[in-house]
Amino acid sequence: MGHTEILDLLIPLTSRVCDTGLDKVSPVYSAVFGGHEDCLEMLLRHGYSPDAQMCLVFGFSSPLCMAFQKDCEFFGIVNILLKYGVQLNELHLAYCLKYEKFSVFRYFLKKGCPLASWNHTSEFINHAIKVQAKYKEWLPSLLLAGFDPLNLLCNSWIEAVSDDTLIFTLEFTNWRRLPPAVDKMLSARASNSSWALRQHIAAVPSLTHLCRLEIRSSLKPEHLRSDSFICQLPLPRSLHNYLLYAEVLRMNEVPELAVIQDGEITETI
């Protein structure tokens, strides 16, 4: 008798308190841990939550976080969890950076992963700093999706990242009107940095840039994630491109990155 046949017999006999109960361990974790995609789908089809509960036994906050440990089965497991409505959060984005799964990072953004009211900002920034050399693969997507760059402009980010990465981050701000604490950290960093960073910080943002920030701040998060929505705004085409930071992306040689379409993510993307 295979795993699924045994599981089919056990599900009706198992107390559902383990599904999301505090201090319990959902069988969803066991399915993910074992890489048993068929068992995982059976559990979710029978109503088990894809989010389960925080699991101290395994040391993960969710089954999706655990999935990043499963190299071979990762994409299949993630597809199943997404199919059954797993709730995305910043830890999942952080794990994408930790394991350098940048295409999945961009897909999670497209699927509406919340970008405000984070509880794990420090953990995200720690992983972001470690992959800042590859910022072109994930940071543009994050900032264009509406993430507040002030959340990045902490002491650890300002001190650790390259001048290019820091300048790119500042492009999504009015860098002459930053909070005093941030301005002080930037000034300290600039004093020991390249001429390019010092020049950027000293420059006055153009009126068009300030208008871009104002227009983007008025858009809903789901609209910022949609290039097609921005391109349908009653504005000249050149302004559509400007709102999408086309000239900044071009200047920083950010490549056009593949965006996973709705459906299954695959290892080839």
TrEMBL record:
A GO-annotated cellular component: cytoplasm
- Return the InterPro entries for the record: Ankyrin_rpt, Ankyrin_rpt-contain_sf, ASB3_SOCS, SOCS_box, SOCS_box-like_dom_sf
Could you tell me which residue ranges the SOCS box domain spans?
Answer: 204-249
Pathway listed for it?
Answer: Protein modification; protein ubiquitination
SMART domains per the UniProt record, alphabetical: ANK (SM00248), SOCS_box (SM00969)
Q: Which biological process terms from the Gene Ontology are attached to this UniProt entry?
A: intracellular signal transduction; protein ubiquitination
What keywords are annotated for this sequence in UniProt? ANK repeat, Repeat
Superkingdom of origin: Eukaryota
Database matches in PANTHER family: ANKYRIN REPEAT AND PROTEIN KINASE DOMAIN-CONTAINING PROTEIN (PTHR24198), ANKYRIN REPEAT AND SOCS BOX CONTAINING 3 (PTHR24198:SF184)
Official protein name in the record:
Ankyrin repeat and SOCS box containing 3
Q: Which organism is it from?
A: Phyllostomus discolor (pale spear-nosed bat)
